[in-house]
Amino acid sequence: MTALLSVSNLQAWYGESHVLHGVNLHVNEGEMICILGRNGMGKTTTLRTIMGILRKRTGRIEFAGQDIMAVALH
After folding, report:
1. Higher pLDDT, 36 or 72
2. How many percent of the chain have pLDDT more than 70?
3. What are phi and psi of 50, to 5 degrees?
């Protein structure tokens, strides 16, 4: 089964602070996932980085087989 959302080696920064270190995530079509963790563990930062709200990032994000790292926010 091909992943609908595929995140590979995702890195993100807030200014000079490196806040995400090599996040990998694969979600198949029809699958539901949950991100759990205590306060300050990076749940919101991970989602903001995947959505493109946090732009200082590296790695690979694919949705339905298309690279979305350079897609405009709007």
Report:
1. 36
2. 100
3. -60, -40
Length of the chain: 74
pTM tops 0.85? yes
Q: In whole angstroms, give the CA distance from residue 15 to residue 43.
A: 18
Matching residue, tokens 């200082």: 56
pLDDT at residue 19 tops 80: yes
CB atoms within 10 A of CB 51: 11
DSSP string, 5-73: EEEEEEEEEETTEEEEEEEEEEEETT--------TTSSHHHHHHHHHTSS-SEEEEEEETTEE-TT---
The string over 21-38, giving b where at least 16 C-beta atoms fall within 10 Å of a residue's C-beta and e elsewhere, is eebeeeeeeeeeeeeeee
